[in-house]
Specification:
Helix 11 crosses helix 14. The two termini are 29 Å apart. A hairpin with a 5-residue loop joins strand 4 and strand 5. The radius of gyration is 25 Å and the shape is elongated. The protein has two domains: 153 residues, 3-Layer(aba) Sandwich (Leucine Aminopeptidase, subunit E, domain 1); 328 residues, Zn peptidases (Aminopeptidase, 3-Layer(aba) Sandwich). The longest helix is centred in the middle third of the chain and has 26 residues. The strands form four sheets. It has an eight-stranded mixed beta sheet with strand order 8-9-11-10-14-18-15-16, sandwiched between helices. Strands 1, 2, 3, 4, 5, 6 and 7 form a seven-stranded mixed beta sheet that branches. Helix content is 33%, strand content 22%.
């Protein structure tokens, strides 16, 4: 795991050995639509070392004005057959978002080049964590291509700045980005490799390799899942290897009196739609990422443990494959969830809420959570409503919603508070069971809302009191193209949001 993650280092300007680097990133700001050097000390050191007049070079490129994310690459031929490259990177007005764009631009430019870059792009302590995160995440590479002889390998970045001020922020940024990277690697793994057993094995390896005594993992399978009617109904469509219930506990000694947060993640390792087969078939191709919620839960537990959060956290990964076979569930089946609630299955392609319902009910009955949060690539309706820039957030706690919204805006994983419309609950009534698991589509079009209302029942009093949150990340969990920090495919959404919020408690 994390095989291609770039190396990040930090050094004071006075201690830098310029001969160790193949590239230098220089921030160019913008004032009155004209470029200006934004880190004079770093620039002066480069001019002195390489006799390179940056200001004169800027005059040769009148179209380059220092807008955030602009990048000008200048190769410099040196003696002794050594070449270095200067990257003049636009930082605009030098605000948080400007620095983020600069970081992304640099990372994408040198991704996979094997270069060693000294960066003077960030000079403010408040921006360093986000800068590091963007630098790492925009460098993400994952594939199963045969190795090539001319491959350059991963790039490495050394941040030039005061170690006494930047060290904590750099470390935090690395931990948060590494968590997202780990989630992305799990999501990108194809489903001929990634089945429920494989995902459980990976979770075990990652927890054990962390060597953190506060982290413990347990896994249920086979007859141990007899009470988990939703998980079995979905997962028994692929009886080999069958579904898995993964429970991860983080119990630091310093958190005896802290709140207990339970995270529940949807972990469908591949989703055919089951008997209600997905149409058109092309939409099935990205369904290896339908376990993004479970990946986010696992990565969040690993991240908060690295950050030393003084909070008790339990992660539940509800893992199954929704296949099409002779043992698949059928529309009109009635299943009994953990805790005894009966549900009539309407559409086998709405399987995510069935596995989440078991996880929520298990948490309420056994774990006594102060906060209960589920995260899932749940409905296409969420994407229709919010696109791919915001995740849908459901809770009756306005204060909590505001907290999560603000964390998301700051950390780069944005969510929008959506309404739980009680009038729509009638759509979930069943003639033969306690609930239908999906709404009547002819009369109710709010598929993301009705899915949230279904899940709220299993959150019990926490749903009513408002300490339950449901994240529908169907839109933000996948990117259709390389864009910004995100690669084409799985984004790892939720890791930074949840880790930052948990750390704030």
């Amino acid at each position: 795991m994390s095989r291609n993650i770039p190396e990040i280092d930090l050094i004071d300007l006075g201690k830098i050995d310029f001969n160790k680097f193949t590239g230098f990133a220089i921030p160019i700001g913008q004032k009155n639509e004209k470029p200006l050097i934004a880190n004079q000390n770093f620039a002066k050191a480069l001019v002195k070392t390489f006799s390179f007049d940056i200001e004169n070079e800027l005059k040769k490129w009148p179209d380059f004005v220092g807008k955030s994310g602009e990048l000008l690459e200048i190769p410099l031929n040196l003696k002794k057959d050594k070449n270095v490259r200067f990257y003049l990177v636009g930082v605009g007005e030098g605000k948080r978002e400007d620095i983020k764009k600069a970081s992304i631009s640099l990372a994408r430019k040198v991704k996979g080049s094997g270069q060693k870059i000294a960066s003077g792009l960030v000079t403010e302590k408040a921006f360093i964590s986000n800068f590091v995160m963007s630098l790492i995440l925009a460098s993400f590479i994952w594939n199963l291509k045969s190795p090539k002889k001319d491959e350059k390998g991963k790039s490495a970045f050394t941040i030039i700045g005061k170690t006494s001020e930047f060290s904590e922020g750099v470390t935090r940024g690395i931990h948060l980005a590494t968590g997202v990277w780990q989630a992305r690697e799990l999501i990108h793994t194809p489903s001929n490799i990634k089945n429920p057993k494989w995902l459980a094995d990976q979770a075990t390896k990652l927890i054990n390799s962390s060597k953190n005594s506060a982290l413990k993992i347990s896994i249920k399978s086979g007859s141990q899942l007899k009470e988990f009617g939703g998980l079995r109904a979905v997962g028994n469509s692929a009886p080999i290897p069958g579904p898995r219930f993964i429970e991860i506990k983080y119990r630091p000694r310093s958190a005896k009196k802290s709140p207990h947060i339970v995270l529940v993640g949807k972990g469908i390792t591949f989703d055919t739609g089951g008997v209600s087969l997905k149409r058109p078939y092309e939409i099935m191709a990205p369904m290896k990422s339908d376990m993004a919620g479970a990946a986010a839960v696992l990565a969040t537990l690993l991240t908060v443990s690295k950050l030393g959060a003084k909070v008790n956290v339990t992660g539940l990964m509800m893992v199954a494959e929704n296949s099409l076979s002779g043992t698949s569930q059928r529309p009109s089946d009635v299943i009994t969830h953990y805790g005894g609630t009966t549900v009539e299955v309407i559409d086998t392609d709405a399987e995510g809420r069935l596995v989440l319902a078991d996880g929520l009910a298990y948490a309420v009955k056994n774990l006594n959570p102060d906060f209960l949060i589920d995260i899932a690539t749940l409905t296409g309706s969420a994407t229709l409503g919010l696109g791919r820039q915001y995740g849908a957030m459901y809770t009756r706690n306005k204060k909590l919603a505001k907290e999560l919204f603000e964390v998301g805006e700051r950390i780069g994983e944005r969510v929008w508070h959506m309404p739980l419309i009680d009038d729509y609950s009638v759509a979930l009534k069943s003639d033969v069971a306690d609930f239908n698991h999906t709404a009547d589509k002819e009369n109710f079009g709010a598929g993301s809302v009705t899915a949230a209302l279904f899940l709220e029942h299993f959150a019990g009093n926490l749903g009513i009191k408002g300490n339950w949150v449901h994240f529908d990340i169907a839109g933000v969990a996948r990117s259709e193209a390389d864009s910004g920090e995100n690669p084409k495919g799985g984004t790892g959404f939720g890791v930074r949001l949840l880790s930052e919020w948990i750390g704030s408690l």
